[in-house]
């Protein structure tokens, strides 16, 4: 049995990893912030991994994901968790000769490209969160441990903070909501992300001599959508008739800018691993059907 140490326990991805049907190949040990706070104990992450009993790989599903907080008073914590912590993980993985599977974000891009972003497109973070995640990617690549970085975007699940839950919560309180119509992306249902990540990890662990790319993209299959249309689809599928009004990102004035184009190109991921990424719309239907059944 392959033992994987997973940083993150109650987050969207970590929760989905724990429940994934693909994890039968692995024994996953989840370390949440209450077991080991990566910000407080950043200086001993290396020792923690080095002294951990049996591990064949590390998945980093932890991150400082509050984009607006990162832009303002959370900057230092975001930097420690998104940049310094992965560097320490990479150093320990290299020393133990095991791969690190790290998760990153579309926010490493500016969002001004026409068409989907490829993994090797030039990076230029759109906000401070994206800058910290990019620094994490660069530290990992500089250390040169085995494994890959998997960028994703617009993750949603029944657990935690995400766009779908935010729209449902707003619709509960208001008859009319305003949503930006100038940001497009390809969402992904966290269980689909978890399954794809574990299947890719399995292929990499069972083909140790094969060369893999440093960075892959994993998002849902299907057609990109703007947040305004996504919100309308969420509410319609949930059977709610809340009125949705389109506004611009400038009018919305979030503390941190978001990429206008967050669409990630997954072709290198699907061709390398032979994995078909499920349509995000079927993930949305499953998620909404699961509400109240947990
Ligand atoms: N959510 C999105 O839309 C989105 C978009 C693009 C990329 N991503 C990337 O996808 C990955 C997974 O995101 P997610 O949506 O699952 O994030 P999430 O739901 O916000 O979960 C964050 C995870 O980080 C852990 N964490 C936070 N602070 C910590 C600390 N001080 N010490 C140790 N662990 C800490 C949490 O630990 P606990 O388990 O203890 O709560 C939790 O498991 C991240 O790398 C993120 O950057 C997400």
Describe it:
With 294 residues, the protein is an alpha/beta fold. The chain has a single domain, classed as Rossmann fold (3-Layer(aba) Sandwich). The chain contains eleven helices and twelve strands. Strands 2-1-3-4-5-10 form a six-stranded parallel beta sheet, with helices on both faces. It has a two-stranded parallel ribbon with strand order 6-9. Helix 1 crosses helix 7 (190-206), helix 2 (45-51) runs parallel beside helix 4 (75-96) and helix 4 (75-96) packs parallel to helix 5 (128-143). The longest helix is centred in the first third of the chain and has 22 residues, at 75-96. The two termini are 29 Å apart. Bound molecules: NADP nicotinamide-adenine-dinucleotide phosphate.
CATH superfamily descriptor: NAD(P)-binding Rossmann-like Domain
The ordered string of helix (H) and strand (E) elements is EHEHEHHEHEEHEEEHEEHEHHH
What structural class results from the helix and strand content? alpha/beta
| Biggest sheet statistics | 6 strands, parallel
First CA to last CA: what distance?
29 Å
Helix content: 40-55%
User: What is the CATH fold-level name?
Assistant: Rossmann fold
Hetero ligands: NADP nicotinamide-adenine-dinucleotide phosphate
Distinct helical segment count: 11
Provide the number of structural domains. 1
Mean pLDDT: 97
- What's the architecture in CATH terms? 3-Layer(aba) Sandwich
What is the CATH first-level class name?
Alpha Beta
């Amino acid at each position: 049995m392959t033992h994987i140490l997973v940083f993150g326990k109650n987050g969207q991805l970590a929760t989905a990893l724990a429940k994934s049907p693909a994890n039968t190949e692995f024994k996953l040990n989840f370390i949440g912030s209450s077991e080991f706070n990566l910000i407080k104990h950043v200086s001993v992450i290396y020792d923690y991994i080095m002294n951990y009993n049996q591990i064949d790989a590390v998945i980093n599903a932890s991150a400082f994901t509050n984009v607006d907080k990162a832009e303002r008073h959370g900057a230092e914590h975001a930097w420690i968790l998104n940049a310094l912590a992965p560097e320490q993980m990479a150093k320990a993985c290299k020393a133990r000769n095991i791969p690190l599977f790290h998760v990153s974000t579309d926010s490493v891009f500016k969002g001004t490209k026409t068409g989907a972003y490829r993994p090797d497109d030039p990076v230029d973070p759109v906000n401070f969160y994206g800058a910290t995640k990019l620094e994490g990617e660069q530290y990992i690549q500089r250390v040169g441990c085995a494994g890959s970085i998997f960028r994703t975007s617009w993750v949603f699940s029944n657990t935690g903070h995400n766009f779908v839950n935010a729209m449902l919560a707003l619709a509960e309180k208001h008859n009319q909501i305003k949503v930006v119509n100038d940001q497009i992306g390809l969402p992904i249902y966290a269980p689909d992300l978890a399954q794809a990540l574990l299947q890719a990890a399995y292929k990499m662990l069972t083909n140790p001599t094969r060369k893999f790319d440093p960075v892959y993209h994993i998002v849902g299959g299907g057609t990109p959508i703007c947040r305004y249309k996504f919100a309308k689809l969420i509410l319609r599928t949930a059977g709610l008739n809340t009125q949705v009004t389109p506004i611009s990102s400038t009018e919305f004035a979030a503390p941190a800018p978001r990429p206008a184009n967050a669409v990630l190109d997954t072709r290198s991921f699907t061709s390398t691993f032979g994995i078909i990424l499920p349509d995000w719309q079927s993930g949305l239907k499953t998620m909404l059907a699961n509400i109240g059944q947990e």
